[in-house]
Amino acid sequence: MEKKRITLFAYSPTEFVEKRLEGLDEVKDYMNYPVVWVNIDGMDFEGLEDLGFSRAFLHVLKRSRGPRALVLKDQLLLLIHQVYRIERGLKKERTTFLMKDNLLVTVQERQGDVFNHVREEIRNKDSILRGSGPDYLIYALLDAVIENYLPLLEEISNSVEKLESEALKRADRELLRHIQSIRRQTFFIRRAIFPLLEVFRRIRVEGAHLFGEKTRLYLEDLSSHIVEVLDLIESQREMADGLIDIYYSAISIRTNEVMRILTVVSTIFIPLTFITGLYGMNFNPRASPYNMPELNWYYGYPAVLLVMLAIAAGMIVYFRRKGWI
Fold this sequence. Notes:
- The chain is α+β, with helices and mostly antiparallel strands.
- The chain folds into two domains: 247 residues, Beta Polymerase, domain 2, CATH 3.30.460; 44 residues.
- 53% of the residues lie in helices and 17% in strands.
- It has a seven-stranded mixed beta sheet.
């Protein structure tokens, strides 16, 4: 686990403070600002109770792993998952939001997140954030989380299109491995984002009093955005399933091609095998005039070879006219 890192943003329409803190006990010095945002990098919840958050929240934080929303009077707890790319695929990270009065605390597993755009908005004195409360801030942060899924989905979509063009060219195990990897990624992202529908529903129903009228409308729009992202994920999953069908179709076509060639070759050799088998019975022509008299012909052997060649050539011409080879 990374060492805990605490950063603070405190602001009003006219004033702004950005500071690195040594401990959460310093937060009280900035509580006179209309909005105070404390971000903790490192899953350390020590000191949150001293900021006034319910002990029940801390109990949930220590025991709960999945996304959820909990409202206790004037306090809000959100647990959600973010997904980001690593070298070998995708990784899921838990992000915690705690809101009380003018204070918003976010707790993340590691340094580096998707909130840089929000930070830039806070630094801009003319931004909407500077004139809004903590309810709009938590909306902006949640919106950044949802928006972060779009580049991942676009990357997956590009991979699907690339594999689709390759599927009929090379149906090998490497291609199948890539297709299966894409399917796993779409399922992984869906498992992370689907629970947010219930989380946002509970916010709107149980925590409506914590949000202003405009922010509630923004949250409604964000819920619709989640549905759109889920539809996009479902579309990509279906495309990945379609790639599986294309892969097996290509395998079937290639197998049929091989079987057709083998069938043609076998068919050509059937009469040739019959002829060679017939003359391999070793009947003695001296014992009877009916015992293969052509074995004593001067040109008997070349004649049989020419007959066999003519049969093979005739069958090849016939198969070509039929379009079988």
